[in-house]
Amino acid sequence: MSYDDPKPAVNVNATDKKGTPVYKRMLDLFEAEGINTLFGIPDPNFVHMFLEAERRGWTVVAPHHEAAAGFMAEAASRITGKPAVAIGTLGPGIANMAPAIQCALVENSPVIFLSGQRARVTEQRVRRGRIQFVKQMPLFENSVKYAASIEYADQTDEVVREGIRKAMGGTPGPVYIEYPSHIILEELDLPAPLAPDRYRLVNQGADIDRVKEAADLIRAAKNPILLVGHAVHTSRSGAAVKQLADLMNCPVIQTSGGTSYIKGLEDRTFQYVFSKASIEAVTESDLVLALGTELGEPVHFGKWRYWMKNEAIRKWIYVEQDPAAIGVNRPIDVPLVGDLRGVVPQLVEALKDTPRAPAPMLEAFMRDGQAELDELAAESRTKSDGTGDLPIHPARLAVEATEAFPKDGILIRDGGAGVIFQWTYSQCKPNDVIWNQNFGHIGTGIPYATGAMLADKAATGVSRPGLLLTSDSSFMFHIAELEVAVRTKLPLVCVVGVDNQWGLEVGVYKRTFGQGTEETGTHWSKEVRFDKIGEGFGCHGEYVTRAEDIKPAIARAYASGKPGVVHVVIDPKANSEEMPKYAEFRTWYAEGTQ
User: Fold this and answer.
1) Cβ pair 580, 421 in contact under 8 A
2) Are 309 and 336 in contact (CB under 8 A)?
3) Pick the CATH number of 383-586 from 3.30.360.10, 3.40.50.970, 1.10.3720.10, 1.10.10.10
4) Mean of pLDDT over the chain
5) From the CA atom positions of the chain, what is the Rg in Å?
């Protein structure tokens, strides 16, 4: 819904304009940061901006729900390493973005959420019954790093720059900016926008003495490890971390949020907890270099459970942009305060003349890690495959689908139980993985996929294939965004594990009350056919009941030249009761013990 603009239509190409309208200046400021994608549904406050952005060659995407626009923008920021922009119509539109705003906050994503607002002469009157109006800033102030309104045209530069400064500085996160309708077309006479390094810290390095101290500890360690988190991917620091890992010659341990594999390090990279090699590497380590992680609950704050062995002798080096985060979750021996993009090259420079010999157990970890994946694939093939009395086991789905992952593709994850199966059974090691781990917000899959793939194409000119592995309940949150994938001709295949229930929640009922409980609120119709829904949106659809048909179905979907939806019938009992290493997953929530 949008209110009708009572003013006459304005020609955005009017020749009597001498200055730069506010909406154009905002685009200029975003372009100075390398932003060239825009997600949202335009209303009268933004139609001028949308039209101008498209004329400049931006990728402009209107989804079917504003929350999806926010998730698309968040995925764009992850795949590009830059801030991203999402637009919400005043009133209900920006209210619909609340889930995406909260997710961006918890996931530390630098998204700029823009909204229009009624003209201040309307907002400030003492009136009842105003149309499409609510005071918006108070709704979001506690969910963003910065909230502001551009009250006067000449505030445009300072407000937008402060928004980007806050979004990218310290711990990254979302900001909220609005502007009332009466200033949309006001003009500014200003010089060209400043480059980012003229008004904010960019690629900030660490104290050089601390870098030397860290290098000395690395050289002296017997069993060092690199602990690699989510921000290594979102800052696009993989190439520099590869150089550092080569010099350290040690295992790389992924946090649950940092599951994108760094190109060239795939064989020595292991998921914390979900890989046996990761547990052995952690317990034996005497030095940890932590990059791009909050050291949060999913890694037991770096001091509990598997970290307890060698705690007395283990040294910690922590690269963190926010100085207020140092020492919060565990003591740190050498804090390196700065941006990964600045600090990692400093460490490389400090170590380049003295590369380490391979860590004593590195070769064994690599051999054992691959052996474990091979064993898991073989073990999955002993489970139900859909040809007998039982539907396809979720472990089998995870193996078959990830073995079909396209080279150089983007992997997108969504769902509850399905993701837990993927953590253990995944057979692919993608360099780009998009999902939200900290907030646990299901339903982001399709908007994450479309946002990441479109932003990646806008940045590189190459349209890479995407594979979304999701579950039925999550897929339905934003299923309308399949139309965006069709409209933009994305090479996206969505593999949907279908058990017609909320799998994790069914498991909770069973563990709480035992077998036979009513499981209220967790089951839904078995008549739903996602392949047919996909076809209705213009996708290629596949319906799969046998494990041996999963890979061919995925191949046909990619070959169709359309986005694809592969409906895979899975065993509901196994999906709710046999999640691998579920006891490990539950330790993340061990209230009071960490």
Assistant:
1) yes
2) no
3) 3.40.50.970
4) 93
5) 25
